[in-house]
Specification:
Layout (H helix, E strand, L loop, with lengths): L1 E2 L13 H5 L6 E5 L2 E9 L6 E8 L2 E8 L5 E2 L2 E2 L4 H10 L4 E6 L4 E6 L5 E7 L2 E8 L7
Parallel strand pairs: 1-6
Antiparallel strand pairs: 2-3, 3-4, 4-5, 5-11, 6-7, 8-9, 9-10, 10-11
Length: 141
C-alpha cells in the first residue's frame, strides 16, 4: 500500500474503541497505570496485511501504529530499505525528515513533518517495520 502522512481511510484517529473493535479481528485493550493501549491483530483493510495497534487519551484513540510489508510505500517511496537511504528518498520526494532518534541499537524513529500529527517510521535493527501516527493532545497543539 502507498501510505500517506494521514492514517489510512477507516483508521482515522479520534474515534472510540468501539469504532476500532468493529474493524479489527482480535481487538484487545490493556489498561495499565502508564496508559491504555490496544492491539488488533492482522488486517487486510488497506490493501496489504499488517498489524494494527494504538493508544488512547481517555476513551478516544489518539495513537495508531500499522506494520508495513516489503511492498509498502510512503508517498510513493518504497519503505523497505535502510533508513539513511529512505530519508534521502523521502526528502527528494518533498517530505521533511525532521529528525532520526535512535532509542537503542535496535529501535529507531524517523520523524517526518506532518501537519496535525506527529508521524514517524519505526525501524527495528535499521529496517523500517511500522508507521506511527500520534494526534497531539490539546496541551501540545
Amino acid at each position: 500500500m502507498d501510505f500517506g502522512l494521514q492514517p489510512p481511510a477507516g483508521f482515522e484517529l479520534g474515534h472510540t474503541q468501539e469504532y476500532y473493535k468493529a474493524k479489527l479481528p482480535r481487538f484487545h485493550v490493556t489498561d495499565e497505570p502508564w496508559g491504555k493501549t490496544f492491539t488488533g491483530g492482522i488486517v487486510e483493510s488497506f490493501g496489504q496485511s499488517g498489524t494494527v495497534s494504538g493508544g488512547f487519551d481517555g476513551d478516544v484513540v489518539t495513537a495508531l501504529a500499522i506494520g508495513i510489508s516489503e511492498d509498502s510505500t510512503l508517498c510513493g517511496v518504497p519503505l523497505f530499505q535502510p533508513l539513511d537511504r529512505l530519508a534521502n528518498q523521502l526528502e527528494h520526494a518533498g517530505l521533511e525528515v525532521a529528525k532520526i532518534v535512535a532509542e537503542d541499537e535496535e529501535y529507531t524513529q524517523m520523524h517526518i513533518a506532518s501537519p496535525g500529527f506527529t508521524f514517524y517510521v519505526i525501524a527495528d535493527q535499521g529496517q523500517p517495520s511500522a508507521l506511527y501516527w500520534l494526534k497531539p493532545t490539546t496541551e501540545d497543539a
